[in-house]
Amino acid sequence: MLLALLSSHKGTVFAALVAPLFVLALPILDVTLAILRRGLRGLPIFRPDRKHIHHRLLSMGLSRRKAVLSLYAVTLIFLAMGFVAFASRGQLTPLLLGLAIIIVLFCAGRLSFSREWFAVGRVVGNSLSMRRQVHYTLALTRWFVLEGERCSSVEGLWLDLVFVAQKLGFSYVHLTLADGQRVWEQANGGEPSYEARHELQGGRFGILVVKAPACESGHEDPASRCPRSPDCERPLCPCISEVRAFEVISDLLAEGWAKAAMKWNAGQQTPLRFDGKVSLPTNQSHARSSQSYAPARVSEAEPKPINTPLNDPAG
Description:
This protein is an alpha+beta fold. It has 13 helices and 4 strands.
């Protein structure tokens, strides 16, 4: 028994398994948060977004160099903790784990993550309430992307964009392309609005600006749906009354326009224009014009006599 205890390597094996978790703590945490964030909101898990840790650092005003150095510093701290856990054969793992939690909470406080973490119930409720809106938006944008291959002109694609935006509850759409601008606006009675601006593919597919009315009920209780009062003249309810839902849905709408424009442009690198039309080869255009778009000719045949067998009295 004594020799078995002395020759046991369970501590070393445990330390070898725990040490990589400390080293990879930052990417593991980032991926976990991304999966939870997208899953709770009803978004595809592998859909890209700008809510990762390095995006938070850049939104705080840090330059790319400072953001990279900050991530390197935190990674080095966890790397040192991994070496300590391996050298101590796992004996210091509980202490290192507590220290890692303190570091994560400190960094979360600096990045404004901690407010969301400590309000888990509110965050989950808001996320679950927007799942149906997100699923509806994804269904409409999928249809819109497929329309990119069917539209014969960019003007037709713009009308489809207005249709989708109106269905989603937006009150204002402004699209700027290389040869002009188009604006669609719906009166919202002077209510406050959320606004988002998207520069698509570096401006090659245009600049999209959308607005949506912010209901007063959304400021008090973001999880509640827009109440449809008797004097409400807005035909589209529930509206996008919460700022987080507006951010997600406006991103999906802009992404849908970019994908539909890419389908319509058929991989060309030229900037999108409102006067753009699908150009067909000569033989294909003649073949299409000669197709049966004229009304079909209905020919009335003379009625033929119907021979009905007579009952044979001899039979």
